[in-house]
Amino acid sequence: MKIxxxxxxxxxxxxxxxxxxEASVRATHLFLSPGEIEAIKAYVPQALREVPHxxxxxxxxxxxVGFMGIDGQRLEMLFLSPEERGxxxxxxxxxxxxxxYQVNELAVNExxxxxxxxxxxxxxxxxxxxxxxxxxxxxxLLYMRL
Length: 146
Description:
The chain is an alpha+beta fold. It has helices at 11-28, 34-41, 44-50, 89-101, 113-121, and strands spanning 2-5, 53-60, 63-71, 74-80, 105-109, 125-130, 141-145. Helices cover 38% and strands 30% of the residues. The chain has a seven-stranded mixed beta sheet.
């Protein structure tokens, strides 16, 4: 598995990352309806274009199976293809972000206990909770720090 940074954000790359995002969300965000996933999906390409550091994990060049976005020391997003979950790729990506960018904070949906558990195993702890997500939806967020 190769970690790739500062790739040109081509339309092809963004399309592949959107596929990874959607498959990941459908596998892990069981609290979202299909309609809600489609609504959120409309904003993902913009987020992928705008996040300062976009890091992908590729099995072969140009075919990402996971990615993360980092802004400052904050992990903004981390998504893996469902078939990659539980195989150490999330740990590898997050450790890269912690080592290279000193990632020390993130937010995770409270209704995604697997993700919360993963971040806790990586040393993060909940420091704050909100009743709604960033768009005001009824999805509590847990803010975590190392």
